[in-house]
Amino acid sequence: MSELLGTAGSENPTQSPADIQKELDSIKQQAIANGTFMKAPNGQPTKLNERQWLQVRTKAFKEWFGDWEIALLYDQAQHAWNDKIVKTDLTSSHLIVQQLGFSSC
Question: What is this structure's pTM?
Answer without folding.
Answer: 0.58
